Structures are given as C-alpha cells and as structure tokens.
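Help wanted!
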Amino acid sequence: MTGDGTRAVRAGLPEAEPHEPTLPGPVFAAHYHLPGDATGPYTYGRDANPTWTLLERAITELESPDSGAETIVFASGMGAISAVLLSRLRQGDTAVLPSDAYQLLPALIERLEGYGVTVRTAPTANDAQLAALDDSVKLLWLETPSNPGLDVCDIRRLADAAHARGALVAVDNTLATPLGQRPLELGADFSVASGTKALTGHGDVLLGYVTCRDPESAASVRAWRKTVGAIPGPMEAWLAHRSLATLQLRIDRQSVTALALAEALTGRPEITGLRHPGLPDDPAHRLAAAQMRGGRFGCVVSFTLPDKKHAERFLTGLRLVDNATSFGGVRSTAERRGRWGGDAVPEGFIRFSVGVEDPDDLIADVLRALDGARTPADG
Ligand SMILES: *Cc1c(COP(=O)(O)O)cnc(C)c1O
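Answered by r_m:
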C-alpha cells in the first residue's frame, strides 16, 4: 500500500528500461505494422494507442487500485458520459438521472427519450427519491458532488438499492477526482469523468474517461468508442498522463484553499447560498466527509450575489481570477453560471474554482473585489 502522492507520480508508468524515458512520449500513429491476421494490441489508431494504454492504466490505479477494473479514455467528458448512457440503454429501458446534473445532460436525456428510453429525474440532494427504483430501471446515474450546486448523495446506499433491482450504477466523479472519491469502492459499476477539469488541471486539454468494474462492461464501452470514434489525440493523452504526477499536490492545495475561501466568505451580508462540502455546517458536509477521501472536498465554492449586475461587478473587479468557465485549473477562475442558461441557478450565482495561488493573495483579491462590487460605480 502506498500513499496517494506516491501512487500519483508512478501511476501507469512502464517498467524501467535502460535508456528509455520514464514516461514514453506520445505515439502518433494512424496504423501499426500488421503482418498476417488483424490481431494483437495495436492494429488501427481508432481502436488502441500505446499512449492511451499507459494513461488508462494510470487512471485505473487511481480510481480502483485493488480490483480488476479497466479504464477507457475518451476525447472529452461528454464522450465518456454518452458512451455509458448510449451503450447501456436500449429501447424500453428506464434510467434514473439527477435533475441537477451537468448542464449538457438534459440534451442527452432528450436524445435517449427519442430512442425509446424512459428517463426519470430526481435531485442529487434527495437520496430517497433517487433510490425509489422499480425493476424496469437498468441504470442509475449519479453526480456527486454535483456541478455547480455542490450537493452530495450517498453512493453506497444508492448502489445497494440499484443492485437489489438489477440496475447498474454510474457516478460522475469529475469534481472529486479519483483522489477525492473512489466510486467503485463505494459500490458503483462505472466511474465516469471529465479529465478536462481538475484531473489534468492546466486548462489546456479536453479529455474524458470511464472506469468499469467488470471486463464485460469495459468491452462494451471500448467497442462504443471504436464505433463512434470519440478518441483522444495522443498528445492530449500524454499531457493528461504527465499532469497526473502533480494531482495530489494540486488537489490538496486547492481543497485547503477552497475551504479557507469559503470560511472567509461566511457571514458576508451580500452573499447567500454559500456552498462548499468542506464547510462543517454545509448541508452536504456529513455525507461528503464520510464518502470522500482525505478531506479533499474539491476546488469549487459556489455562492449567490444579489443580482446579475452585482455579480458582474464582482467578476470584473477580480485581478487574480479569470472570468472563464470550467474548473479545477491551477489558475483560479470564476463565472456567473446563469450566463449559459443550462443550470437552475439565480442570475447572481457564482461558481468559483480555486487554483494553486497563495491562499492569502487569492482570498484578499476576492474580498477586495466583493467590497468594490457593493455599490454600482458612480457616473
Ligand atoms: C465539464 C463536465 C462534464 C463534461 O466534460 P467535457 O470534458 O467538457 O466534455 C461532465 N460532467 C461534469 C460534472 C463536468 O463538470
């Protein structure tokens, strides 16, 4: 047994070979030398690539170190999510999904319904409603903590309820990352994530992955990737693998600073709905503390300012924080989430992603921008 930091720096590396690099560079190949029959690990570039293989091993070691799990990497988080939903569900099946899931899930639900799948939704914060399954349910989809609402559901309890009905369970693990939460250990069948966010952490790569508990599911997700061609480029896969070495450093720093920022915002009169799962009095804290790992509650803090204009003044006043979407990067970002129209949030709702800046600098910048945003600029 090694610690998370040790595992992260070595994850997926090949055996040491004299005069070979520690992490081999990206393999750019559309096809491979293939004498005779079309067998072997590498035949055509849409099916497999050695750079993916190393990254897939690395993610498996982080998501599920002690089981026979398998990971399949994708071109984006949405590529990974749709691979599970569209490969597992057939006409006549029922699926249950969170009503507050990632903003593109409703578009995917509409498509599933068009294919004859019945979809029921329930809020992440309502475990009882999510757990109310009947025998027609084939798949239960969870997202915890949820983006951007930061609600948490009980993976173990819901996985037990789903398995009792013969349904499979998938968890979107994007916000937590495998260092913050291991859904397969909590009973889920799939851990699915966008690697675009905290996993890679530099805001320069789009990537997704699915970690599957059993080989049969893995084979079906792998076949789906080949069929639809939602494959990552070798450069992206290599950049992602390179970034994993610093995952523990980044996640630990970002989690600690996110909690410090949330504490600094507590009691500000202009702020309502302050959420961070690490705050002791957050509605999600007890459950998050029980199922998340190492006090890593993630880098996102969300809160609501009185209105759209107030929120825009705040964002404009920030000097160390980019007004940009996405989260989990080394540079802090914040945005008025309502501008996308996909989430049920108030106009003044801010999703703040804490980077790796010095905590004092960042918190001072936020408090100064909040002070400056209190009243509209004169003139
Ligand atoms: C960003 C995100 C996705 C989508 O990932 P992409 O890499 O942008 O396709 C899915 N789920 C959650 C929770 C996300 O934050």
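OP: Thanks! One thing I noticed: Residues 247-265 form the longest helix (19 residues).
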